[in-house]
Design goal:
The structure holds three protein chains of three kinds. By secondary structure, chain A is of the alpha+beta class. Chain A is built from 14 helices and ten strands. In chain C, the strands form two sheets. In chain C, strands 2-3-5 form a three-stranded antiparallel beta sheet. Chain C has a two-stranded antiparallel sheet with strand order 1-4.
Chain lengths: 391, 319, 114
């Protein structure tokens, strides 16, 4: 049996960002995958240490082009925990609205990308045409189609005037109709079903074992969603469903995302109705008190975590981000084994990879000229020693 | 005088020059229709409504640097584009575009044409194999696998028509259809159109050059003038296959008032539009799904059509 | 197959493509584009230069105000976040709707008024 190695990446028409997967193939069947990340490492965590707390919002926004709103929301929530300040109610609803609009836009983008990976360019063109409506709404509210920069420490910066509300609702009705149509296409089209059903199966046990997050886990019947487990802003006052599917394949992940888009449209409508007039931000001091804080939000791709530590200076002492795509990479390697080359784009696209968010830690000792990467056990032992818990 | 006339027919009209113009025209129609189905504009600025865009692309590619990678098999790699263009040109000379084909037709020239299409697939395979690139190897292997799937239904659907008409000469088939075969043998037409889509390597069967999986498949290492010729060869194959479909199923060339050439080209355009429509409707199939689908559905359908040929037109004969 | 009717109908619809630059889509009122700087309102406090996340504002000496300096905007560094507009105590900076700022020469992307 002779295996040969095919690298996908760092340059490849199928992938949007630079990453590398080395596939070990037996004919057309994948035997093993070796991921190699870090091509898009930009030193953002170091950059956070050089910028003030407010400037950090804009740096956090530019971690990812698609899921920028959850990054700013998470960062602001973490820093607000340091200040121990509570934002006004209207600001919380506005944060919900802009987060859910971003989720709709991200999921619609993903459906188009799935179409393109499968060679279904028509679906891609139609979905991206309808996605323009969401970007027009975001532009109307905040002034920029892609990076709204709406969050600030202590609330939000732009308000939704009463004239905007009918426009938003009309566009949402239109979007709901189109999303239902795309849902029916995904359910019925035989060529999409042939490429996605029973492809890239990740069983529930494996999903829990490898810590999958987001729609990747929810399509394997794992009920985990930060909006339900750990509600931030005012998600506990809004009535919506946690979407899970139990098919555990690429089709299940597609359906989870489509259903989540429909739920997000309903959430935005409810938030618009429940908003009451009031202030939209509170003023905070320039430098937060000493301490450390963590915040989690549900980005479109899964659970996003920001950690900030302040030592009373103008700039953070440490800021750390753990993005959902990094958590999904082990699951991705597991999902790919045993399938064909032709399934690679569909499976890799199904975790909705956003590699500009992922990073990897590598230790370099310049004196000894060595470099090594820590394994999972070494990391656990180190953290146990650090926190004084028994080894 | 006769020789000069034949030479004009071979090289200018309806020969090589006319075929080249048709190839560029059909690529434009295909791209415009595909774009309109997707709510886009398509080519717009090169010439009125973008009609010169395929020619502009050809000229641009001819002007690029011609790179031959170090480890390829240069004999095959450099000469494959020439064969790729020559085969559809030669095959198209047998199409009865203005009533009679350019090269004299004979009994069994349908078999010759199908053999030429087979030869093209061999060229695809050795061109991909000679490129010694992982992606090209996978693409070449897929091209051969795909060829195993679509060749037989195509042959059998053409054979059904030949059995009905009673001849294997393309000119005879296209001239002797009082009722076009599409109405008498619709199943055969559907099987032929699907096989044609697979042969031309268009979505849903563009597996040998699947862009999102293996970069460009067997075309990966080609660039510059060689790529220009290969893409031109794809357009020529579109002309040839739609011409074959017109001649066999649509009673090519016959129709009131207008000269036969005009009817032939109009019917070819109809086939091209149909192919573009199918192209915009589906995602790409996987190679094993395609092969098993062809063997499970297309071949029984085509055999069914062959059996039904006995009963085709029975009602008409009674009228 | 599921899109058969929808795709066919699109053959007769107008394409949604906007033929930029011959046609343009309208921008929203709040669109954050190129700056407009009102020299007579500036007091030279320097808050805009301090707060800019992209270090795109530089203070140059000037005799237009009491502190002796006014900002100059480097549009090739600017991320159009709007912080300078928000933080200015005299509303001397405003972000307009103009976005066609592409240029082959970086020196043309420096905006200074006054």
């Amino acid at each position: 049996m002779s295996y040969y190695q095919v690298p996908i990446g760092p340059q490849h028409p199928a992938i949007k960002e630079a990453f590398q997967f080395n596939f070990i193939l037996d004919g057309e069947v994948i035997v093993d995958v070796k991921p190699r990340l870090g091509f898009v490492h930009r030193g953002i965590e170091k950059g956070m240490e050089l910028r003030t707390w407010v400037q950090g919002i804009f740096l956090a926004e530019r971690i990812c082009g698609i899921c920028n709103v959850p990054h700013t929301t998470c960062y602001c929530l973490a820093v607000e925990k340091l200040y121990d300040v509570d934002v006004p109610e209207r600001a919380k609803y506005l944060r919900i609205i802009i987060n859910e609009l971003n989720r709709i836009h991200s999921h619609l983008l993903w459906i188009g990308v799935l179409g393109m990976e499968l060679g279904f360019h028509t679906l891609f063109m139609y979905v991206w045409r309808d996605r323009e409506k969401v970007m027009d709404l975001v532009e109307m509210i905040s002034g920029n189609r892609v990076t709204p920069s709406m969050n600030c420490i202590g609330g939000v910066v732009y308000d939704i005037t009463p004239e905007m509300i009918p426009i938003i609702k009309r566009n949402l009705d239109n979007l709901e109709e189109r999303t239902k149509y795309y849902k029916s296409v995904l359910e019925e089209d035989p060529s999409i079903r042939a490429r996605t059903v029973d492809v890239g199966v990740l069983s529930t046990d494996k999903a829990l074992d490898l810590c999958a997050v987001g729609p990747t886990a929810r399509a394997s019947n794992v009920k985990s969603d930060v909006r339900f487990d750990d509600p931030y802003t005012l998600y506990d006052e809004i009535d919506f469903n946690l979407i899970t599917y139990d098919t555990c394949d690429v089709w299940g992940r597609a359906m989870v995302r489509v259903d989540e888009t429909l739920e997000s449209i309903s959430v935005v409508r409810q938030a618009l109705d429940k908003m009451r007039p009031g202030p939209i931000n509170v003023k905070v001091k320039r430098i937060p008190p000493v301490g450390e804080a963590t915040a989690r939000v549900e980005a479109p791709r899964g659970e996003l975590l920001h950690y900030v530590k302040s030592d009373g200076k103008e700039t953070p002492y440490r800021a750390k981000m753990r993005t959902p795509t990094l958590a999904n990479i082990p699951s991705l390697c597991e999902m790919l084994k045993g399938y064909h080359i032709a399934d690679i784009p569909a499976i890799v696209a199904s975790i909705d990879p956003c590699y500009c968010c992922t990073e990897r830690v590598m230790f370099i000792d310049p004196d000894k000229g060595k470099k090594w990467i820590w394994s999972y056990d070494e990391l656990r032992n180190y953290s146990r020693k650090y926190y004084g818990v028994g080894v | 005088m006769d020789n000069v006339f034949t030479l004009i027919r071979i090289f200018i009209f309806p020969g090589l020059l006319f075929l080249s113009i048709l190839a560029f025209l059909f690529e434009w129609i295909d791209r415009k229709a595909y774009a309109r189905f997707q709510n886009r504009i398509g080519p717009l600025y090169a010439g009125p409504s973008g009609i010169l865009q395929p020619i502009a692309d050809f000229i641009k590619l001819m002007g690029k640097e011609d790179i031959t990678p170090r480890y390829v098999d240069t004999l095959i790699f450099n000469n494959a584009p020439i064969f790729a263009v020559a085969i559809p040109f030669f095959a198209s000379l047998y199409l009865p575009m203005d009533g009679s084909p350019i090269l004299p037709s004979f009994e069994g020239d349908v078999v010759l044409l199908l053999t030429l299409m087979t030869l093209y697939t061999i060229i695809v395979f050795i061109a991909g194999w000679a490129s010694t690139n992982r992606f090209s190897t996978v693409g070449a292997a897929r091209a051969i696998l795909q060829f195993l799937a679509y060749e037989i239904p195509m042959f059998i659907s053409i054979a059904s028509v030949a059995v009905y008409v009673g001849s294997t000469s393309l000119t005879y088939i296209s001239m002797n259809q009082p009722v076009p075969m599409i109405l008498l043998q619709p199943i055969g037409f559907i099987v032929f159109i699907i096989s044609m889509q697979a042969e031309l390597e268009r979505i849903p069967f563009d597996i040998p050059e699947a862009e999102s999986e293996i970069v460009a498949g067997w075309l990966t290492e080609y660039c510059g003038p060689k790529l220009a010729f290969l893409r031109f060869a794809e357009d020529l194959r579109l002309v040839f296959c739609s011409g074959l479909a017109t001649a066999i199923f649509l009673a090519g060339g016959s129709g009131p008032i207008l000269p036969p050439v005009v009817w032939f080209v109009l019917k070819m355009i109809f086939v091209v539009l149909l192919s573009s429509y199918i192209r915009s409707l589906f995602a790409r199939f996987r190679i094993d799904q395609m092969v098993s689908g062809c063997w499970r559905y297309l071949i029984p359908l085509s055999i069914l059509q062959l059996i039904l040929t006995r009963f085709v037109g029975v009602g008409l004969r009674w009228l | 197959m599921a899109m058969i009717r929808e795709v066919f109908k699109h053959l007769f619809k107008r394409p949604v493509t906007v033929k930029y630059p011959f046609e343009k889509t309208p921008t929203a009122d709040r669109y954050r584009g190129k700056h407009e700087f009102y020299v007579d309102r500036c007091v030279g406090c320097g808050l805009c230069a301090r707060e800019c996340p992209a270090l795109a504002i530089e203070l140059v000496p000037s005799d237009k105000n009491v502190n002796g300096r006014i900002p100059v905007f480097y549009l090739d560094r600017c991320i159009f976040c709007g912080q300078c507009e928000r933080i200015c105590p005299r509303a001397a900076i405003r972000l307009t709707k103009f976005y066609e700022l592409a240029s082959p020469d970086r020196k043309t992307l420096v905006y200074s008024a006054g």
